[in-house]
Amino acid sequence: MNWFGKHFNDKIILSKSKKFIPISNNGQIKYIKFWNDGFLAYQLKFSPFESSLIILNLTNNEVIFNRTYSPNTPIYLHHSLNTSYFWIQIKSSQVEILRPQFRERKNKLYALTVKVIDDKGPIANAQVSVGNMTLKADATGYATFLLPSGNYTVKIEAVGYEEVEKSIFLSQNETVEILMKQIFAPLKVIAKDSEGKTITSPATVVISKNSTRIFKAEITNGTLTINLPIGTYTVSLYMRHYNVTKEVLLTKEGGEVTFVINLLNICIRVEHEDGSKPHNATIVVADEYGNVILTKHGEEEISVKLLPGLYVITAYESGYETVFRSISSESGAKLGTCIIMMLKKIPQQPGNTSQTVSSNYFQTILTALVILFAAFIFVLIIWYFKVFKIKRAAKEKEGKH
């Protein structure tokens, strides 16, 4: 029986016969291996005689054909391969394989392999076109065409990259590497309050793509501009008591994302515990870091618009105790009424007056005693010198006699 092939351990290496090779495995799984000369296309004819699973895969285990067919359904597969051999796995079916077709020298096909990369590595799913044929680059950035000798223009397009065209003269199997350049555009981030003023409080901007953080920066003037490859990004704004996230599409013309933070109106009123009307009270509003936001003198009631956060309110007036109160802008807004700063009058303390008088009296007595003591010493010194002088005079008189 002429099989037009050679058997090696249940494998068949296809010969150069022009005829079909029928294979019947009687329901058993069989593997067939054959070679691909010159990157020519094979025609595979599958003729299942019952419901069959047929798998065609390359040597790198990439499945390119995996289907189940009804009985007596003829199947024709034409696939261009750029590998030296591949395997067919057959289960409960009959397969006929046609060898590579020989062509005239002038019609010989060559493999043009295009490798698409950027400065980081291969670009998957790039669209590669040669003439009227278009392929997508695989995960390793490769796309292969079978073409006769001649001049060709290779066109490559990929999302976020500049389009590339390259002229090729093909006279043999050839691999061409194409370096793609990403398209960058400015993305502007703006943080402002509900009155249109830019936020000066410290804030953090985080930019992510496909759940991966690619940029993080602190801003203090409410604006930030960064050049990024065009595409879709997630932009998040973080403050101590506020955070929000938005998605933005960055195009060649650039993009902008604006965060508007609502100000919350807080009312503050000063009252005296004794019911009298405040006339010269001072109200100070500071943030949790001690930065003074507002100072008002001589006003009984004020309103202040605050960003979300924690604040300390101080109220004081001459003759009254100073009052402090910590609030959050959120809780202040929910109250719906003014925050009352109740000032308590400093009470008179008579004990302090008598203590002052006693202290002054003691100091007066002490001063008088010091003066008297000094006078006593002075008199004593004078008396001493006077006695000394008298005794000396007496001695001189006795000496003369």
Characterize this entry briefly:
The protein has helices at 329-335, 350-400, and strands at 5-8, 11-14, 21-24, 30-35, 42-47, 52-58, 63-69, 75-79, 85-91, 94-98, 109-118, 121-122, 127-130, 133-136, 142-148, 150-157, 164-170, 174-179, 184-193, 203-209, 212-219, 223-229, 231-239, 242-250, 255-261, 264-272, 282-287, 292-297, 301-306, 310-316, 323-328, 339-343.
Set down the secondary structure blueprint.
Elements: E1 5-8, E2 11-14, E3 21-24, E4 30-35, E5 42-47, E6 52-58, E7 63-69, E8 75-79, E9 85-91, E10 94-98, E11 109-118, E12 121-122, E13 127-130, E14 133-136, E15 142-148, E16 150-157, E17 164-170, E18 174-179, E19 184-193, E20 203-209, E21 212-219, E22 223-229, E23 231-239, E24 242-250, E25 255-261, E26 264-272, E27 282-287, E28 292-297, E29 301-306, E30 310-316, E31 323-328, H1 329-335, E32 339-343, H2 350-400
Parallel strand pairs: 11-18, 19-25, 26-32
Antiparallel strand pairs: 1-2, 3-10, 4-9, 5-8, 5-10, 6-7, 6-9, 11-12, 11-15, 13-14, 13-16, 16-17, 19-22, 20-21, 20-23, 23-24, 26-29, 27-28, 27-30, 30-31
Written description of the protein model:
The protein is mainly β. The protein has four domains: 94 residues, Jelly Rolls (Sandwich); 75 residues, Immunoglobulins (Immunoglobulin-like, Sandwich), CATH 2.60.40.10; 78 residues, Immunoglobulin-like (Sandwich); 80 residues, Carboxypeptidase-like, regulatory domain (Immunoglobulin-like). Helices cover 14% and strands 51% of the residues. The chain has two helices and 32 strands. A four-stranded antiparallel β-sheet has the order 3-10-5-8, with no helix packed on it. A hairpin with a 2-residue loop joins strand 1 and strand 2. The longest helix is centred in the last third of the chain and has 51 residues.
